[in-house]
Amino acid sequence: MWQQAEEFGFYAGYTYDHLSWEAFRELSWFSATPVLTAAATVTSTLKLGPLVTTPNFRHPLTAAKELIALDDISNGRMIAGVGSGSWGLDSTVLGAEQWSPALRHEHFEAFLRVYDQLLREPRSTIDNAFYPITESRQLPGPVQSPRPPLIVSALGPKSLALAAELGDGWVSYGAPRGVREASTVVAVGDQVKRLNDELAQRGRDTATFQKAILDFGGDVRPTSSLEAFVDYAGTYRDLGFSEMVIHWPIPNSPYDWDRSIFEAIATEGVATVTRWS
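^ thats the sequence. predicted structure below, dont judge the formating
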């Protein structure tokens, strides 16, 4: 499947970093980093990464060490996706109580700052309330310098500010919960505006900052036809997005797309979107 994704010409291949995916809890689900490492050994151009790693069950040091290895094995093709994580099974499976929204954001900010530093440094001692580090070693370090691209998942004002400060790119999952009164594209457009304002305040280029969209819970169905995908891609391209993330078809799931339509999107659709770049 990963080889076919590369043959189709996809820019990157991702997997969610869950212990189990709630919608498929009783089905096979391997750990993200070994799967991505296996994919790296059978591909040569496809960029690879978790979309996204979260503090739900990860520590930034062990996560950084794993992805430094993936960057080495893939010869510099790793993309480090990071997010705050959602409520649900991954956040309670280790026996912890659900974090409040405020505490979840505090963990996310701490994780992201420590993670960013660890991916840049060969040695680290970090004074952090949630993730203190004492004399760690990140040797030999990642292939990509000063670190692999950090793509931050963010929807709200605080997390968008973090993405603008620390990220090399941003991924939107559509409208936040409770914001369905507006269309998804309107909600995402508001996110883009806020992100661009945050980038501008920091003197960063809004045009070159990577923006990715992964939204299959909104009010459009981009996989219903090739034309629907091209329209979807065009809408988000006009908002400044340069990457459209699409699920590989999964039988008997919410992502059980028509295989022939998916393959048309993967070939003709990707070619069309690429010509726009």
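The chain has a mean pLDDT of 91.
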